[in-house]
């Protein structure tokens, strides 16, 4: 149950959304838009489904990330109509609307069918996982580009309600992080850390916004490492845990790296170095700052760290110029965060023009100038990834003895979720609670 304050903030969020949709729909020449929450997909040839998360634009209105077969009709000047799929079903528990104030903002029609509702006369668009054939059977357009772009842009600036949800998702994720760290230090395997995380954060795996990355030792250097070993390694050098949570649809995306009891003495200072770099970059967050420039500052900082810790013999500038820092950190500084972990509109300007990542940085998901109300992740990393470092083998720029001494530690990533405000950064990831 949301607090009265959160419920009131959600009411204001929905009012503002209704006004913004009306303006966009009118400008784009539509009488309305039908949003589809989506449905879970079956494995091929099977009767079992993959886990499900509702479509972001549907979630922007309706805070139920697990709601399948929901349709939401938005028309300027009319109350939104929520077609809520609630069939009588003895195999499953029939979905129910929560007893929360936001429901009052909608006309609700409970229904047993999954097909879209029929639409009134006029020009309508359908957004969500629908094909053009289904849309045209209703006389509507499926996922028109200009309307989608305009609605994506609405999700870039977070309302007070959305910020509160993101903050709460962070709080819950950190509960999991703390429990997982304790289990790691007590000798747990990756699966033990994951189970401790889920238990403390009170969440099932399928409801996380992404599969937690729980990498012990060298697995920390596999950027999207996807397994959980069931046996603890003989030597515990490090844990890299990238773990999230979801609250009313809104995502947390937090990474911590911990040295283990068997870590090389050089590892903890490296973790500290990346943390300091991350805090420095966070301090620079404010409206008008180019995120690409911050990403470049991350590389300059990584060059300094590599030189300072003796991992490279060349100058920090040379480490950046030759691509060595990119081999140590092949991902971007971060991304927009919201109803999706990698939220929409990170690579388009507010006017819709494309903003591709700079040459040599294809993984950077956010290339915009920062604006108040954006929530971004800040996640510098430094990894030992042999397949990327190998091409520098003949340059003598890398101190292989030191690098190889750290290879079994995988790497370091420190990731926080930060709101950009006119007063500077508001870090939603509560450091003082760690
Ligand atoms: N957890 C995915 C990411 O950090 O982008
Ligand atoms: Mn992230
Ligand atoms: Mn992450």
Automatic annotation (TrEMBL):
Binds 2 manganese ions per subunit. It comes from Halomonas flagellata. This is Xaa-Pro dipeptidase. Keywords: Dipeptidase, Hydrolase, Manganese, Metal-binding, Metalloprotease, Protease. It catalyses: Xaa-L-Pro dipeptide + H2O = an L-alpha-amino acid + L-proline. Residues 165-421 form the Peptidase M24 domain. Mn(2+) 1 binds at residues 253, 335, 379, 415. Mn(2+) 2 binds at residues 242, 253, 415. InterPro entries: Creatin/AminoP/Spt16_N, Creatinase/aminopeptidase-like, PepQ_N, Pept_M24, Peptidase_M24B_aminopep-P_CS, X-Pro_dipept-like, X_Pro_dipept. Belongs to the peptidase M24B family. Bacterial-type prolidase subfamily. HAMAP family: X_Pro_dipeptid (MF_01279). It holds the Pfam family Peptidase_M24. Its cofactor is Mn(2+). One of its GO terms (molecular function) is proline dipeptidase activity. Splits dipeptides with a prolyl residue in the C-terminal position.
């Amino acid at each position: 149950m949301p607090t009265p304050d959160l419920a009131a903030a959600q009411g204001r969020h929905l009012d503002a959304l209704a006004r913004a949709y009306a303006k966009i729909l009118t400008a784009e020449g539509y009488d309305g838009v039908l949003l589809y929450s989506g449905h879970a997909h079956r494995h091929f040839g099977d009767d079992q489904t993959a886990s499900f998360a509702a479509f972001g634009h549907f979630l922007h209105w309706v805070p139920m990330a697990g709601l399948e077969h929901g349709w939401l009709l938005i028309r300027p000047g009319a109350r939104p109509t929520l077609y809520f799929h609630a069939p009588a079903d003895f195999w499953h528990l029939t979905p129910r609307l929560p007893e929360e104030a936001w429901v009052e903002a909608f006309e609700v029609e409970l229904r047993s069918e999954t097909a879209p509702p029929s639409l009134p006369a006029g020009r309508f668009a359908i957004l969500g996982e629908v094909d053009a054939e289904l849309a045209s059977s209703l006389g509507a357009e499926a996922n028109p580009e200009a309307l989608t772009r305009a609605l994506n842009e609405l999700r870039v600036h977070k309302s007070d309600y959305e910020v509160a949800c993101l903050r709460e998702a962070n709080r819950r994720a950190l509960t999991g992080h703390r429990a997982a760290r304790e289990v790691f230090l007590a000798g747990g395997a990756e699966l033990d850390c994951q189970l401790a995380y889920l238990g403390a954060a009170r969440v099932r795996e399928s409801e996380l916004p992404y599969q937690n990355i729980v990498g012990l030792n060298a697995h920390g250097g596999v950027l999207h490492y996807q397994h959980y070993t069931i046996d603890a390694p003989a030597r515990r050098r490090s844990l890299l845990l990238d773990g999230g949570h979801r609250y009313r649809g809104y995502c947390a995306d937090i990474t911590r790296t911990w040295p283990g009891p068997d870590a090389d003495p050089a590892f903890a200072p490296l973790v500290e170095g990346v943390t300091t770099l991350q805090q420095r970059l966070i301090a620079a967050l404010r409206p008008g700052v180019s995120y690409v420039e911050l990403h470049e500052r991350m590389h300059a900082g990584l060059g300094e760290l590599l030189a300072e810790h003796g991992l490279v013999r060349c100058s920090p500038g040379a480490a950046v110029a030759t691509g060595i820092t990119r081999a140590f950190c092949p991902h971007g500084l971060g991304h927009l965060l919201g109803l999706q972990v990698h939220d929409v509109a990170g690579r388009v300007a507010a006017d819709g023009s494309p903003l591709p990542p700079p040459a040599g940085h294809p993984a950077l998901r956010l290339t915009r100038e920062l604006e108040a109300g954006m929530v971004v992740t800040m996640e510098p990393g430094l990894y030992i990834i042999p397949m990327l470092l190998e091409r520098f083998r003949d340059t003598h720029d890398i101190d292989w003895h030191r690098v190889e001494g750290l290879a079994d530690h995988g790497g370091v990533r420190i990731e926080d979720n930060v709101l950009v405000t006119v007063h500077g950064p508001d870090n939603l990831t509560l450091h003082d609670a760690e």
